[in-house]
Design a protein that fits this description.
By secondary structure, the protein is α+β, with helices and mostly antiparallel strands. It has three domains: 2-126, no CATH class; 162-239, SH3 type barrels (Roll), CATH 2.30.30.100; 245-334, no CATH class. The protein has helices spanning 2-27, 41-67, 71-86, 95-125, 128-131, 140-145, 245-270, 279-301, 314-334; strands spanning 162-172, 180-191, 198-210, 215-218, 224-227, 231-241. Helix 1 packs across helix 2 (41-67), helix 1 (2-27) packs parallel to helix 4 (95-125) and helix 7 runs antiparallel to helix 8 (279-301).
């Protein structure tokens, strides 16, 4: 009975929890990296299993269509190995089976990495976490310190623009008779791994208010580290670059470009795996399909770029067009698709 529980536990960890952990490791990154492993154990376990199942489904669909095996075949082989282990016998695993298992594990990790990174990029680039609170990360200080709160519904009254820097005015208690007022450019901050509370802020070009001179004077040094437990008051001042109508058009154009590019690349990456052709033809179809879509985006959207200097000359567009047609022909040939 104990051996059955042990084997079952190992299978669950490897096939469900582990890919979920890999996914979350690459989803929580950058300023949000400390959120990885910061929740309660039960929450981490449930979320890892959930994302592990999603990664398993995607990996199985791609891998099975690439090598032609089915769920029934996998279940039969797994049952045979499991029965041999329960009978204290060495399971019979061929070299080809071992290749499939190791290849599947490697592909599982790749899918978890790509899916986690892709969803993180999508949420951050399209500001989904700013518009919908359910998608926000636990490190709320990053939103305040980088001026991203201006895109939130709660702070829509603030001036908007392109964030350049954040100036911090902070009153600290250093144990002396009078509290000190310090000002400087916020460069970095650290938060607690367990609670997510702010631990320290890092200021450059820092100055302090002199009660004698009645003005701010420079503080010698390159970077001033202030523990947050010494902070009494904290004031943030943002420096924004005013965005004119032309820049708004450029931002909208880049978002449209990114959306079309992502949608097309996803289709070009996923569709070939549903075709009954050789795996090398599928890989080639994915490569040339992505190249074709990239050229199509350039040819079709580049003339619409709001920046005249960024537009290609007509001669170059013709060259790119013929390159797109050639790449499309190679893609259709590899995927064994006839348009007529």
């Amino acid at each position: 009975m104990e051996s059955q529980i042990t084997i079952t536990t190992i299978i669950i960890i490897v096939w469900l929890i582990f890919p979920g952990i890999v996914f979350k490791r690459f989803y929580y990154k950058g300023q949000f990296a400390k959120q990885f492993g910061a929740d309660l154990f039960a929450d981490r376990l449930i979320s890892s299993i959930f994302w592990g199942i999603i990664v398993q489904i995607i990996t199985f669909l791609i891998y099975s269509r690439s090598f032609g095996f089915t769920f029934t075949g996998i279940r039969n082989k797994t049952s045979a190995v499991y029965a041999s282990v329960l009978a204290n016998q060495m399971p019979t695993i061929s070299y080809s089976d071992l290749e499939y298992i190791l290849g599947y594990l490697a592909f599982l990790i790749i899918i978890a990495f790509c899916l986690g990174s892709f969803i993180h990029f999508t949420v951050r680039y399209f500001k989904i976490d700013l518009k919908y609170p359910v998608f926000r990360f636990a490190n709320h200080w990053n939103y305040y310190f980088r001026g991203e709160i201006v895109s939130m519904r709660e702070f829509k009254s603030l001036n908007k623009g392109r964030w350049l820097s954040t100036t911090v005015d902070v009153v600290i208690d250093d144990g002396s008779e009078k509290n000190k007022m310090i000002s400087g450019f916020l460069t970095q901050h650290t938060i607690s791994h367990k609670t997510g509370d702010l631990e320290s802020i890092y200021l450059t070009s820092a100055t302090r208010y002199s009660h004698t001179d009645k003005k701010f004077i420079p503080i010698p040094g390159d970077c001033l580290v202030i523990p947050f437990d010494k902070v009494i008051d904290l004031n943030l001042r943002y420096t924004f670059q005013v965005i004119n109508d032309d820049q708004k058009k450029q931002i909208l154009f880049r978002k449209l470009l990114a959306f079309c590019l992502i949608a097309g690349l996803l289709f070009a990456t996923i569709f070939p795996w549903y075709l009954k052709i050789n795996i090398f033809l599928k890989i080639g179809g994915v490569i040339f399909g992505c190249l074709t879509w990239l050229l199509f985006i350039i040819v079709s959207l580049n003339p619409l770029d709001p920046r005249p200097t960024a537009r290609f000359p007509t001669k170059d567009l013709f060259v790119l067009f013929f390159a797109m047609v050639f790449s499309l022909s190679v893609t259709l040939l590899l995927l064994n698709i006839t348009p007529f």
